[in-house]
Sequence to fold (635 residues):
Amino acid sequence: MQVNATSTAVEPRPLVFAGLPASSWAFAVRTWLACLLALYASFWLELEAPSSAAITVAILALPTRGQGMEKASFRLLATVIGVAASIAIAGFFSQTDGLLLAVFGVCVGLCAYAAGMLDGNRAYAAALCCITIALIAIQQIDSPQLVFPTGVARGAALAVGVLAVALVNDVLAAPDYHPVLAGRLEALHRRVMNHIEGIFRGEAAAAPTAANLLRDIAAMRPELASLTTESSSGTARTAAARAAMVDLAATLALARALSALPVAPRPVLGLSAQDDSSSGLLAICRTWLRGELIRKNVDVRSSLDALRGGRHPFRQWQAPLYRSRRIAAESGVRAAIHFTLIAMLFVITGWPATELCLSLIAVIIGLSSTAPDPRMFTKVAVVATPIACLLAGILKYFVFNGVSAFQLLAIGLAPVVIGLSLLISLPHRILSSLGRLTLVFTLAVLAPTNPQSYDPQTFVITCLFVCLSSILVFAAQLLIPPLSNDRRLRLLLGETRSELGRLDIQRHHDLAPEEATFRDATRIELIVAAGGGSALNRWALDEAMCCFDEAATLRRCSTELNRLATGPLADVAEAARAALARRNGSAALAAAEALRKTAAQRDLNVDSACAALVLASIAFDPSQSASGSVEKRQP
Fold:
C-alpha cells in the first residue's frame, strides 16, 4: 500500500547576487528605508526618543509582511503593559531604594517565567514587558516624576517605527508569509508520508526519526499567528495551517501504532498463536489503522489546499501548547537572582550613573529568557556589543564627523543597516541573532537625534556600560548557571510519566485526541531540544516516544468507548474501561474480543473500538512491541 504526498511543481531557482538571494537584498533595502522613514518622521515630529523608532524598525525587521505585523502588535501590547507597570512601580516604591531594586528583580523573574510558559512572539511580548520597565522605570529611578512622560515618548516613537515598517512593506510589496509556510508544511507532509511508506515496507520505526518529525511539526506553531495579520483571509489560512499541523502529528501517532503491531499473534497476548480470534482482531486493527492513515492523508492535503486558497479547513482544530511550569519557574528565579546580584554589586561599589547599565542588563536577561539556550544568547550579546560600539563610533566620528544633514545620515547608515540586515536574513540562527543584536545596539549607541550629539565623553561612557552589561550578565550566568539541558530533560520526562499515570479514561476530555496528541508533540519538541548532545538523549527519546504512544492509545480508547457508553454495548464498554484502568494488556485484549462478539450478535460495527483496545493491549505488553523501544523504559 502506498500513500502519496502532495505533489508540487518544481520552483525556479532564485536570483543570487554576491552569494545572497535577491529576496535577502530586498529585505535589507526595506529595513534601511523603514529605518530612515522612522527617523525622519521622529525628527519632524520632534519626538524625545527618535532612536527608539529606528530600534523598533530593527526589531521588527522580518522577511515577510505578516511576521512583522504580528510582532508589532505584540510589541505595542507589551509596551502598554510595561508602561502601566512602570508607573505603578514608580508610584509605590519611588522612595525605597534597595526595595525598589528588589521589586525590579521580581519583575524580571516574573517576565522570564511568563516567557517560559509561552512561545514565539507571545514569549517576546512577556520579555518586552520586562524590557519596557527597564527602559522607563529603571532609567528614571532617581526621577520618578519623569516615568509617565518617558513612557509616552517611548510609546510615540514605537508607534512611528511600526507605521514606518508597515508603510515600507506595503509600498515595496513585501512578500506574504503563507506561501513559505505552505511550502514548509508540504515538505513536512512528504517526510511524514515517506516515513509511513517505510513502515508499510516493514522497516523499523525508529524513535529518533519520529521524534524529529514531531519536533519539526510542533516548531511551526509559533509562526501560524503571523498569517492572521497578513490579509483579510489570514484567519482562514491560520485555521487551515493549524489543521494541517495537528493532523500531521496525529498521522505520525497512527503510523507508530501500526508499526507496533506484531506480524502474527503470539501466546503472550493470552491467546493461543493459532487462535482465530486473535488473528481476526489483529487484522481488524491493521485494516482500521491503514484506513485512518489514508483518511488523515486526505485531511492534510485538503487543509494544505485551503491554506493555499485562503479558505477555512473542513475541520477546525486547536493547537494546544505544552510548557513545564517547573522549568519556567526555575528559569524565572534564576533570572531574578542574576539581576539582583548585579544590582547589589552596583550598590556596593557605589558607581554613579549606573541606571543605563542596569536597564541594559534587564534587557539582555529578558531577551535571553526567550532563547532556547540563554547562555548562548548572552555569549552572542557579549560579541555583538563591542562590534556595535565600534560601528557606532565609526559612523559618529569618522563618517558623520559633526555634520547634521539628514541626507548624510541616510547615506552613512546604508552600509551598516543593509549589511547587518543581510546577516539577519541568513538561515544560521547564531549569525542571524548576531546581526539583529548588533543592529539594535548600534542604533542604541549611535542614538540619532536632531541635532546630533558628538560629546565623546558621553559616547565612551555609553559604550562602556553597553559592553559591561553583557559581560556582567554572562558572569552572573557562570556563577549561577541557567537550567541545564540534563535538568530540563529529567523534569520533562518526570512530568510526562506523571501525566500518563494520571490520564483518566473514565471521563470526557476537553481536547480531541488529535489536539491532545499535538500537545504531546510540543513536549517532544522540548525533549528533543533539551537532549541534544546529552548521554541521556537516546534513552530519553525512547522513553518519551513510548509515553507518547501510550497516551495517544489511551485517549483513542477513551473516545471510542465514550461513544458506546449509552448504547446497547455500555456494559461491555465499561468492562473494557476497567481493564484499561488497570493497564492490563491481556484484559484489554479479552475486552476487545468480548466487544467484537457482542457487537456481532447485535449486528453493530465496533471495529474502531476493537482496534483501539488491541493497540492498548500491545502498549501495556512490552514484549509485543515491534520496534523494541518500549522495552527500554525504566521506572
